[in-house]
Write a structure and sequence with these properties.
Blueprint (H helix, E strand, L loop, with lengths): L1 H19 L29 E5 L5 H16 L3 E6 L4 E6 L8 H13 L4 H4 L8 E6 L7 H12 L4 H10 L2 E5 L2 E6 L1 H15 L4 H15 L47 H8 L6 H28 L24 H34 L1
Antiparallel strand pairs: 1-3, 2-3, 4-6, 5-6
């Protein structure tokens, strides 16, 4: 029994190690899977298999237009396709002519992609060899709707530039629609695309993963680095927590925790016992109260008088300034006055001459 238990634990750990390390699952270079033809399964399938999926109302018109093409492409693989507009569903069923048992799974993915707004031209590629699809649900990753819309837009990028870059690097067709992202392409590309999309929805910008993929693509071209680790070439991005919680305007100082309850406050009788008022007679208590009221009245009268006298206090006058103003010099510059007079005469003479010339011309014209 113990040996069986040990073997079971070893097999579980072996499986876990293989699933944790994705490089073990990679297809070796130069490997080509032989095509599955009718000769491999001449008798066909024993039982009938079928899959159905629902589609939204806005896809009805498009599916009606392209359904004859879908039926034709699936008929080549021996699969019958049905469109039910009343229920809003698509169904694929295997026929006697179907020889490939995996073709029904491909047909199921085809109708799922058509329901998720993938165009027919792209969706039919799923029927090819070494092409798979992945529908990634992104609606449940973030709870806040505004945050979800912002991150989804970040994945698309300005004019779809980020999405185009991911498509070029992964070799997949990617379509963002509502709460899901549909990806169609090779298995290795789908793995990278899923990682980028999920990281983007977890607030990791796609540019970091795009940079890493670009470096990996260049390193894969070098045959000497195939057996080496690429960690020294890949960028390491440190996480920065920029967003901080808003601090309150008034911070309350936390008191030191004590397991004992706070002391009980003194009652009115305890206070009277402490001051000795409890043992006084009623007449003495009234006398003390009247004296306290008199003191309060005197204080309030003094404050009121002070407030009235504030209006009669003269304001403080500014002290006379001790800075002496520099007096203008009594000396007169005669040369400067002469220059001004001469300049004024010249300008006057020039104006008279300019005025006189048009008058002479007028006189000559009148004489003629």
């Amino acid at each position: 029994m113990e040996n069986f238990h040990m073997k079971f634990v070893i097999s579980v750990t072996e499986k876990q190690r293989k699933s944790d390390n994705p490089e073990i699952l990679e297809i070796p270079e130069g490997w080509k899977e032989p095509e599955f033809t009718r000769k491999d399964n001449p008798h066909g399938l024993i039982s009938e298999s079928s899959f159905a999926t629902l589609f939204p109302k806005y896809r009805e018109q498009y599916l009606r237009d392209c359904w004859p093409l879908v039926k034709k492409s699936l008929a080549d693989h021996g699969i019958k396709a049905e469109l039910d507009v009343i229920e809003g569903s698509m169904t694929v069923v295997t026929t006697r002519k179907c020889f490939d048992p995996f073709s029904i799974i491909k047909a199921r993915d085809l109708i799922r992609l058509l329901a998720r707004s993938v165009p027919y031209e792209q969706a039919t590629k799923i029927m090819e060899e070494n092409v798979a699809c992945d529908i990634i649900k992104i609606g449940t990753i973030t709870r806040n709707r505004e945050r979800f819309v912002k991150r989804r837009q970040r994945l698309i990028g300005p004019n779809g530039s980020t999405l185009k870059a991911i498509e070029l690097l992964t070799g997949c067709y990617i379509l963002v629609q509502g709460n899901t992202v549909s990806a169609l392409g090779p298995y290795s590309g789908l793995r990278d695309a899923r990682k980028i999309i999920e990281d983007c929805m977890k607030n990791i910008h796609p540019i970091y993963n795009i940079k890493t993929l670009m470096i990996k693509k260049e390193l894969a071209k070098d045959p000497q680095l195939k057996t080496e680790s690429w960690d020294r070439f890949l960028p390491k991005f440190a996480a920065k927590n920029i967003s901080k919680r808003k601090q309150p305007h008034k911070k309350r100082a936390k008191k030191n925790y004590t397991p004992f309850p706070p002391p009980q406050p003194d009652s009115k009788i305890d206070k009277q016992l402490a001051t000795g008022e409890y043992f006084l007679q009623e007449r003495q208590k009234l006398q003390i109260k009247s004296e306290q009221l008199k003191e309060k009245r005197i204080e309030s009268d003094a404050k009121r008088e002070e407030k009235r006298n504030r209006a009669f206090i003269p304001p403080e006058e500014p002290a006379p300034s001790t800075v002496k103003v520099a007096k203008k010099s009594d000396t007169i510059d005669i040369d400067a006055i002469k220059r001004k007079v001469q300049k004024a005469k010249k300008t006057k003479m020039g104006k008279d001459v300019s005025k006189a010339e048009p008058l002479r011309k007028k006189k000559k014209l009148s004489n003629r």
